[in-house]
Amino acid sequence: MSVLVTGGAGYIGGHMTLGLLDAGEEVVVLDNLSTGFDWAVKEPARLVVGDMGDADLVARLIEEHAIDAVAHFAARIVVPDSVVDPLGYYLNNTAKARTLIETAINGGVKTFIFSSTAAVYGETSSEPVSEETPLAPISPYGRSKLMVEWMLEDASRAYDFRYVALRYFNVAGADPEGRLGQSTPRATHLIKRGVQTALGMYPSMEIFGQDYPTRDGTCIRDYIQVTDLIDAHLAALRYLRDGGESIVCNCGYGHGQTVREVVDVVKRVSGVDFKVVLSPRRAGDPAAIVARADRARNTLGWRPTRDNLDAIVRQALDWERRLHNSRPGREP
Ligand SMILES: NC(=O)c1ccc[n+]([C@@H]2O[C@H](COP(=O)([O-])OP(=O)(O)OC[C@H]3O[C@@H](n4cnc5c(N)ncnc54)[C@H](O)[C@@H]3O)[C@@H](O)[C@H]2O)c1
Ligand SMILES: O=c1ccn([C@@H]2O[C@H](COP(=O)(O)OP(=O)(O)O[C@H]3O[C@H](CO)[C@@H](O)[C@H](O)[C@H]3O)[C@@H](O)[C@H]2O)c(=O)[nH]1
């Protein structure tokens, strides 16, 4: 039995591949390398370069590798990008996911883990949101993901098929052993941009919006360390293989930091007082979004252990330094 990891050459999928290998699983990665890197797929995982919307390819992989579970990470992921290219996002994140789910079910795969997102909630108060909070995504990205949740829900009712959808909050940091980190080209994520600016790759960084209804006027997010997030996936896989019912779980720590607070941590940890430019709000950004993750703890038995923003920033900085000093496109 093997696990098929779509998007396994990307940031989070690459860490999932490491986590699965560490747990002794056999792994096949399917990735079109649009934002991922072949070197991010560590041996003995097998990388197949191709598109998740290629039903013939996926069907062949399921059969050849006796796939019993799919962990589906492949997606386009940039919120403001989705505002300017919504149909591109619906094609990749929604339509191709439909093909993937159908092919998995036709191939006899009964368990599926889906990378969902806090962006399905849209505007919320500063209070932590539970999975019961009404869903009202405000970006095409969030909608493209919510539709996949709905397809999974309906498919699990109609067929012999169970899933766990994990709604990630803001994923950050790197493998604590230094084997991998976030390598996405042109990344727009706050911590990544911060450490890149600290390393001199940008002359300054922007803070988007200072008039949000938050404690210092900048947006609040719940930053979850990537290895803790992968532990939730490994728990979800065990849960599904033990016969657990389909569920949706938030993955976050239950408290948030403002953009200014994060920038201050990056400056302190890096020791660089880089220039910050105050810019207007960015399209598609909710003011605050923080997780209530009791369900992941109680149902999956998830036990996060890496809730420490200083350590997260240090991991991101260490990885960025290695990336920066490596040859373009080559393993750091
Ligand atoms: N990074 C975050 O903070 C965050 C938060 C919530 C949810 N997520 C979700 O987690 C998942 C992984 O995100 P990431 O940060 O690792 O992004 P990433 O861009 O690093 O990884 C995505 C991977 O998917 C691949 N891919 C994209 N379209 C594909 C296709 N059609 N066929 C095959 N491969 C394809 C890319 O090449 C890349 O390797 C995504 O589904 C994203 O929506 C991420
Ligand atoms: O240079 C920057 C980058 C970001 N921000 C702000 O920082 C916050 C966080 O932004 P970012 O790191 O880009 O994350 P989000 O837009 O919150 O989205 C991330 O987190 C979502 C879940 O909450 C995921 O679904 C997305 O895939 C992932 O990109 C937002 O208020 C941004 O406006 C800045 O002020 N300056």
Please write out the topology.
Elements: E1 2-6, H1 11-22, E2 26-31, E3 46-49, H2 55-64, E4 67-72, H3 79-84, H4 86-106, E5 111-117, H5 140-158, E6 162-168, E7 170-172, H6 190-198, E8 204-208, E9 220-221, E10 223-225, H7 226-241, E11 247-251, E12 257-258, H8 259-270, E13 275-279, E14 288-289, H9 294-300, H10 309-325
Parallel strand pairs: 1-2, 1-4, 2-3, 4-5, 5-6, 6-11, 7-10, 8-13, 9-14
Antiparallel strand pairs: 9-12
Helix pairs in contact: 1-7, 2-4, 4-5, 6-8, 6-10, 8-10
The structure holds nicotinamide-adenine-dinucleotide (NAD) and uridine-5'-diphosphate-glucose (UPG).
Residues 77, 79, 117-119, 169-170, 188-190, 193, 205-208, 219, 221, 259, 282, 285, 289 line the site of uridine-5'-diphosphate-glucose.
- Helix content range of the residues, please? 25-40%
Q: So, the CATH homologous superfamily of the domain at 2-173 and 223-254 and 292-305?
A: NAD(P)-binding Rossmann-like Domain
CATH topology call of the domain at 2-173 and 223-254 and 292-305: Rossmann fold
Strand content: 15-25%
Biggest β-sheet description: 7 strands, parallel
Radius of gyration: 19 Å
Query: Please, what is the average pLDDT?
Result: 96
Structural class per helix/strand content? alpha/beta
- Are there runs of 5+ residues with pLDDT below 50, and where? none
The set of bound ligands, ions and cofactors reads:
nicotinamide-adenine-dinucleotide, uridine-5'-diphosphate-glucose
CATH C-level class of the domain at 2-173 and 223-254 and 292-305 is Alpha Beta
- What's the arrangement of strands in the largest beta sheet? 3-2-1-4-5-6-11
CATH architect. name of the domain at 2-173 and 223-254 and 292-305: 3-Layer(aba) Sandwich
| Count of separate DSSP helical elements | 10
Gross morphology is globular
Distance between the termini: 31 Å
Number of strands: 14
Sketch the topology as an H/E string, one letter per element: EHEEHEHHEHEEHEEEHEEHEEHH
